[in-house]
Design brief:
Helix content: 25-40%
Distance between the termini: 62 Å
Largest sheet: 7 strands, mixed
Radius of gyration: 28 Å
Number of strands: 28
Structural class: alpha+beta
Number of helices: 20
Low-confidence stretches: 1-17, 26-31, 43-48
Strand content: 25-35%
Length: 716
């Protein structure tokens, strides 16, 4: 690793004077990070990440290595640190880290990984800094350290009541070795963690202080809007820019390309002195496209192909135990059904945007970026610039859901900046966002199952749909790595004959992660099928699951679901449905209650959600994330989808890719399981159970089984 001097570190961080820096470094071949300080890192030659800095005025600065896109890391991470550091949250300043995987490891904000991936290190770092400050105070007073304690940014001597502010101690504390073992608090001792504290970013987002990508301005910056080929793989045949160049403010018009996985997307960039001028110039542009030599797909053809594959092909086994095919061939009481889920776009309220400045000695980027480390590596590779010369700055994100972890929009901005020799801000329109993709892939599933003596004798699932992995590697001879995502692992312990297979399906449509990834589609199919199996067995859906999910945490979750929803006391003319899924180390169960309105239409009366995410930080953030997940799942299940005709996306904006309205949102009640298990994810696991619970509730009310999404709630 590169040696970093204290002076260089302070200069790079824009700091002067003495401060206590506490961070992590990874010794060669070490599995766990070690705690260190600036001086110790300098002495050993290790580069480390300065997560926590305490200045001589007592101000604590936290470097947040992950993006804040509404999921709450800007609050959760400081809340963790303030707990063990024993400081007030108001005394913590949060800054976003630049992309640097050497220092910060993975910086991808995805997979609900921010808290679950770093909370143990953050607790240890904070406790380490606290103990160093206590030792510094004890040395100054010449008293035993065990006579001192920390509270609200002070070290206090218990017998005498003397106290020193952290700022008065950082100079001496910074000279001490970092203790490698510190005692952490028990959950019962927490003062801040597990408390519903208000979010620190809320005032910033309401008073205009929060800096989003569109807020970034640079001296001499120009603005660009790009007319991109509406069909992936199409090329620019020719373009006429004469009218565009007559628009006041338009400076240049030229062809630009960006990589989308293993292919390129052609476009024509219009550069101007304002976003408005660039967009008006783009409207005046005339482009002729060459869309020959590749398939122009239709949505109906995609699902017909899925169905044929599921009927004819066994697929690539992802997991198999026992002999489900043999059992099913002999079974008398069985079902064989197909479920289908649609293509979806991410629909973040903030469309894509990026500021890039290509210079001779470096490339610098600013924007709403979910994966600064990935962007750094991609730009370094594409433009043949050393990684350390690629500076990626994160701003706040107005939503992401996986889309802003992709690399196309940052690469395109750098290419335009390089062409014009100036910094540029590239802004995507809502139409660009919706029509360009990449999308969550539409997937079809075949479920076969049999019941003997009231018990599951066999389960067999096959999925057919685009595989994200196939864009970037050669895994085409292997099953989708996420074939069982969303399906609870305890089923494999209790069902003797069970198999999951992936039937490969290739399609030249860009597909990628979407909130909860494959669990969002798998969950609908697998949990809907479990509900159908319960009906086939003539058993209550919750009792049916209780027999097969024998894991203690699952049993407790089921009991809680039954309790909060009053499941056993369902009334006439009401439909109740349930589903339980697992993803990113968290298990979530939903119960949905529906009834008929006076006009005969189905309405959703209530949703109960129970989340087991293990160790957690802020219950209000969890509730907000689950509520947001349910709203997003409601839209995906009943309102919107992306469809294709002749290779073109048919939806353009929110007038034809409709979003749920406030009046569509049912009352939601969120309950959190209390335990000491390791932290699971929060931002995504609340989405997958909703659709199968809703369709189960509709079946309970109407007797109609829904197996294809989206469906119209008003016509059920």
């Amino acid at each position: 690793m590169n040696h970093i001097s204290r002076r260089s570190f302070l200069r790079a961080a824009g700091l002067t004077g003495t401060a206590l820096f506490v961070g992590l470094y990874f010794p060669l071949n070490a599995e766990e990070a070690k705690v260190t300080t600036t001086d110790a890192a300098e002495a050993t030659g290790f580069e480390f990440n300065a997560w926590i800095r305490i200045d001589t005025d007592g101000k604590v600065t936290l470097t947040d290595h992950r993006a804040e896109m509404g999921q709450g890391s800007y609050q959760s991470v400081p809340q963790i640190i303030a707990e063990e550091l024993e400081v007030n949250l108001k005394d913590i300043n949060v800054i976003f880290a630049q992309g640097n995987p050497t220092k910060f490891g993975s910086q991808i904000t995805g997979g609900s990984s921010t808290v679950r991936g770093s909370y143990k290190n953050l607790l240890k770092l904070s406790a380490t800094a606290r103990e160093m400050l206590i030792t510094a105070a004890a040395n100054q007073w010449n008293v035993p350290a065990n006579e001192c304690y920390a509270e609200s940014g002070y070290v206090i001597h218990k017998p005498s009541g003397k106290k020193l502010n952290y700022g008065e101690l950082v100079t001496e504390a910074s000279k001490l070795p970092a203790p490698q073992e510190v005692k952490l608090k028990e959950i019962s001792q927490y003062k801040l963690i597990r408390k519903p504290l208000p979010r620190m970013d809320t005032p910033l987002k309401t008073n205009g202080e929060a800096i989003f990508g569109l807020d970034k301005k640079l001296p001499g910056m120009l603005y660009a809007s790009v007319e991109r080929n509406p069909r992936l793989r199409g090329k620019v045949k020719s373009f006429d820019d004469s009218a565009a160049l007559k628009v006041p403010g338009v400076k240049q018009v030229f062809k630009v390309q960006m990589f989308v996985f293993n292919t390129t997307r052609d476009g024509v960039a219009v550069v101007a002195d304002s976003t408005w001028a660039a967009m008006q110039g783009r409207k005046a542009l005339h482009v002729e496209w060459d869309d020959s030599g590749f398939e122009h797909v239709n949505t109906s053809d995609i699902y017909k192909a899925h169905e044929e594959l599921l009927k004819k092909e066994e697929g690539l086994f992802f997991k198999k135990q026992g002999e489900p095919s043999q059992i099913l061939a002999k079974a008398g009481k069985k079902i064989d059904v197909i479920y289908q889920t649609p293509y979806q776009m991410h629909a973040a309220m903030e469309p894509l945007n990026c500021v890039a400045h290509y210079q001779n000695d470096k490339i610098e980027i600013w924007g709403p970026i979910q994966a600064p480390d990935w962007v750094q590596g991609d730009i370094s590779d594409k433009f043949k610039v050393p990684k350390e010369k690629v500076i990626v700055n994160m701003t706040f994100l107005g939503g992401g859901f996986g889309r802003k972890a992709f690399l196309d929009y940052t690469q395109e901005a750098v290419a335009i900046s390089k062409q014009i020799g100036a910094p540029v801000q590239v802004v995507w329109t809502r139409e660009d966002d919706i029509t360009q993709g990449p999308y969550r892939a539409g997937i079809s599933y075949r479920g076969e199952g049999s019941i003997e003596n009231g018990e599951i004798s066999a389960l067999k699932f096959k999925m057919a749909g685009q595989n994200i992995d196939h864009w970037n590697n050669d895994k085409r001879d292997k099953a989708n790595d996420s074939t069982t995502e969303g399906f609870l692992k305890p089923y494999f312990d209790s069902v003797k004959n069970i198999s999951f297979a992936d039937v490969p399906y290739e399609m030249p449509l860009p597909n990628m992660w979407w909130r909860s990834v494959y669990a969002s589609t798998n969950g609908f199919a697998y949990e809907s099928f479990i509900n159908e199996m319960a009906v086939l067995a003539g058993q209550d859906q919750l009792d049916f699951r209780r027999k097969y999910l024998k894991d203690e945490r699952c049993q407790q979750l089921i009991n809680r679901i039954e309790e909060v929803s009053d499941w056993k006391n369902k009334k006439k003319n009401e439909g109740y449905g349930v589903a339980i899924t697992e993803c990113f180390e968290s298990t979530v169960g939903h119960v949905v209650k529906v009834s008929r309105k006076a006009d005969g239409k189905v309405k959703i009366d209530h949703v109960w959600a129970v989340m087991d995410c293990g160790w957690y930080v802020n219950p209000d953030i969890i509730k907000a994330q689950v509520e947001g997940s349910i709203l997003m799942a409601l839209g995906a299940a009943t309102i919107h989808e992306i469809t294709f005709k002749d290779g073109l996306v048919e939806q353009k904006n929110f007038y034809d890719y409709l979003m749920p309205r406030m009046s569509d949102m049912p009352p939601v009640e969120v309950h959190i399981m209390e335990n000491t298990a390791d932290a699971g994810g929060v931002g995504e696991p609340g989405l997958p159970p909703f659709a199968p619970a809703l369709t189960d509730a509709i079946y309970d009310l109407t007797g109609k089984r829904i197996r294809k999404l989206p469906f119209n709630l008003n016509t059920v």
